[in-house]
From TrEMBL, chain A:
Pfam families: GatC. Allows the formation of correctly charged Asn-tRNA(Asn) or Gln-tRNA(Gln) through the transamidation of misacylated Asp-tRNA(Asn) or Glu-tRNA(Gln) in organisms which lack either or both of asparaginyl-tRNA or glutaminyl-tRNA synthetases. The reaction takes place in the presence of glutamine and ATP through an activated phospho-Asp-tRNA(Asn) or phospho-Glu-tRNA(Gln). Transmembrane segments: none annotated. This is Aspartyl/glutamyl-tRNA(Asn/Gln) amidotransferase subunit C. Keywords: ATP-binding, Ligase, Nucleotide-binding, Protein biosynthesis. HAMAP family: GatC. Heterotrimer of A, B and C subunits. Its EC number is 6.3.5.-. Coiled coil: none annotated. PANTHER family: GLUTAMYL-TRNA(GLN) AMIDOTRANSFERASE SUBUNIT C, MITOCHONDRIAL. It catalyses: L-aspartyl-tRNA(Asn) + L-glutamine + ATP + H2O = L-asparaginyl-tRNA(Asn) + L-glutamate + ADP + phosphate + 2 H(+); L-glutamyl-tRNA(Gln) + L-glutamine + ATP + H2O = L-glutaminyl-tRNA(Gln) + L-glutamate + ADP + phosphate + H(+). InterPro entries: Asp/Glu-ADT_sf_sub_c, GatC.
TrEMBL record, chain B:
The lineage of its organism: Bacteria, Pseudomonadati, Pseudomonadota, Alphaproteobacteria, Sphingomonadales. This is Glutamyl-tRNA(Gln) amidotransferase subunit A. Heterotrimer of A, B and C subunits. It is an enzyme of class 6 (ligase). Belongs to the amidase family. GatA subfamily. It comes from Sphingomonas hankyongi. Its EC number is 6.3.5.7. PANTHER family: GLUTAMYL-TRNA(GLN) AMIDOTRANSFERASE SUBUNIT A, TRANSAMIDASE. InterPro entries: Amidase, Amidase_dom, AS_sf, GatA.
Length: 95, 490
């Protein structure tokens, strides 16, 4: 499988990374080179193999359903590029 | 007191406890050494006042007879760890100015043990790289140079600043992180020790996420013993990390022993690969002899899926990274691009301007392999091959107690010498399989190559058996007698 410039444009859109045409064109052969290399995995017979989900066997813990954190709005907003009235502020989304 | 910087952590700890010198003297000496080594670009932020405050507390605690395990020891901290009130940027422009309001569990554990912080250490952006060249702060220079050459060499990556700091005596020990070799390859490049513990030993809470199923913190230091001391302080169960192992922390230092009688050392035949310099294979053979001398018996083992480990890694790690890095949206922390338009334009411009080329490349690969129609062909397939790689190791550890290989397929290379992404990825060919299997693994210096550069030997242990890895590392350290130091030019 190889990717076309159109596909790369679509991936960049999904990844929310703005890219110039020149950048997209540079990426096409780079990505194809890497994807061509990972394709060797097709040689491996994985019939009947369960995909690995936990590298060290363990059960996902459940914690007590209790409040352990909170009341720290200032700390959460401290690094926001823009915060107003105790909220994160973003560019206008509704006209 | 400049000889203080050539001491190991064990020597500093013991000398401080017996009153040969104060914690303040240690901190002041190191603060001065850090300030005098800016040429190396190892630190992104210096925090001398933090080191001094911890030293003062340590000196007071000693007066009261109750110093912590790391009292009096100042450490360098990789910039991937969140440190309260101190820039924590993962080597990226997108986190420029980010000052966490919280402390990572690992650094909090180190502080609880009495350690101070000398500063934050440079690294490849988001730990994606093997040469420290992808950092937004520019590359770190290795203190090592080739014989008769002034060419700037990389200290490896992604924990490049960490490695350079220990090798240049501007930190007695440091934290690193290892996703696919980022502790071990740089440790090998600069002639120091570094261990990645079993996945889950060290909490990932407060460590900037790259590939969460692989990321593990670990120490880097001058000696095997120092690594044991630091790892004991860093490790431990943390309810805030869902994959943290709920197990007591072993007494790795107290149980160090280089007597390997009755132990079997696995030598995987698939690690004899083309294109590796003869000197590296010769060191590997020498390592086998050293372990035999320590009482161990070498056995040939097979890890049949070894050649598929790197391509598997370069599907799984970018896939997880593309998900993890979705959080950098210019809303909650980090930079926001000033751009006309709506929310989507802001996201696109922020991420375009904030991420470097290698990070973008990996986000793009990760997004692609997770996208509709390709998920099974790439991601699910890779997770199946990963299961086979894990099974290879399970089978191997039926026949042996520890595995010995070279750490990296080359010595350190020059800055700018490796430009092809795929060639760069091959640096981790020996390191990545243990990462995919979540196993503890360590690099220990073995000797110098013909150019006068350090080469490392790599030990892989079974799940939770850091002790075996450390003990075999100690056996090599005692026999290698690696005392070479870089000549000071910076």
């Amino acid at each position: 499988m190889s990717v076309s410039p159109e596909q790369v444009r679509h991936i960049a859109k999904l990844a929310r990374i703005a890219m110039s045409n020149a950048e997209l064109e540079r990426l096409v052969p780079e990505l194809n080179n890497i994807l061509g290399w990972v394709e060797q995995l097709a040689e491996v017979d994985t019939g009947g193999v369960e995909p690995l989900t936990a590298v060290i066997d363990q059960k996902l813990r459940l914690r007590a359903d209790a409040i352990t954190d909170g009341d720290c709005r200032e700390a959460i907003l401290a690094n926001a590029p823009d915060a107003e009235h105790g909220f994160f502020a973003v560019p206008k989304v509704i006209e | 007191m400049s000889e203080l910087t050539s001491k190991t952590i064990a020597e500093l700890r013991d000398g401080f406890r017996s009153g040969d010198f104060t914690a303040r003297e240690i901190a002041e000496t190191y603060n001065a050494a850090v300030a005098a080594a800016k040429t190396l670009n190892a630190y992104t932020v210096e925090t001398p006042e933090d080191a001094l405050a911890a030293a003062q507390a340590a000196d007071e605690a000693r007066g009261n007879g109750d110093p912590g395990a790391l009292a009096g020891i100042p450490l360098g901290i990789k910039d991937l760890f969140a440190t309260r009130g101190v820039d924590s940027t993962a080597g990226s422009n997108i986190l420029k100015g980010f000052k966490p309001t919280y402390e990572s569990t690992v650094t909090a554990n180190l502080r609880k043990a009495g350690a101070g912080m000398l500063g934050k250490l440079n690294m490849d952006e988001f730990a994606m790289g093997s040469s420290n060249e992808t950092s937004a702060y520019g590359p770190v220079l290795s203190p090592w140079r080739r014989k008769g050459s002034n060419v700037g060499l990389t200290p490896g990556g992604s924990s490049g600043g960490s490695a350079a700091a220990v090798a240049a005596d501007i930190a007695p020990g440091v934290t690193g992180t290892d996703t696919g070799g980022s502790i071990r390859q740089p440790a090998a490049f600069v002639g120091i020790c570094g261990i990645k513990p079993t996945y889950g030993r060290c909490s990932r809470w407060g460590v900037v996420a790259f590939a969460s199923s692989l990321d593990q913190a670990g120490p880097m230091a001058k000696t095997v013993r120092d690594c044991a001391i630091l790892l004991e302080a860093m490790a431990g169960f943390d309810p805030k990390d869902s994959t943290s192992l709920d197990l007591p922390v072993p007494q790795w230092e107290a149980n160090l022993s280089s007597n390997l009688n009755g132990k079997r050392v696995g030598i995987p035949k698939e690690y004899r690969i083309d294109g590796v310099p003869a000197e590296i294979n010769a060191l590997w053979d020498q390592g086998i002899e050293w372990l035999k001398d320590a009482g161990a018996t070498p056995v040939e083992i097979s890890l049949p899926h070894t050649k598929y480990a790197l391509p598997t890694y370069y599907i799984i790690a970018p896939a997880e990274a593309s998900s993890n890095l979705a959080r950098y949206d210019g809303v909650r922390y980090g930079m926001r691009a000033a751009v006309e338009g709506g929310l989507d334009d802001m996201y696109g411009a922020t991420r375009a301007g904030g991420f470097g080329a290698e990070v973008k490349r990996r986000i793009m690969i990760g997004t692609y392999v997770l996208s509709a129609g390709f998920y099974d062909a790439y991601f699910t397939k890779a997770q199946k091959v990963r299961a086979l790689i894990k099974q290879d190791f399970r089978n191997a550890f039926q026949q042996c107690d520890v595995i010995l290989t070279p750490t990296a397929p080359s010595a350190a290379f020059g800055i700018g010498e490796t430009t092809d992404p795929l060639a760069m990825y091959l640096n981790d060919v020996f390191a990545v399989p243990a990462s995919l299997a979540g196993l503890p693994a360590m690099s220990v210096p073995g000797g110098l190559d013909g150019q006068g550069l350090p080469l490392g030997l790599h030990l892989i242990g079974n799940e939770l058996d850091e002790q075996m890895v450390l003990n075999a590392g100690l056996a090599i350290e005692e026999r290698a007698g690696f005392t070479a130091r870089p000549e000071k030019w910076w």
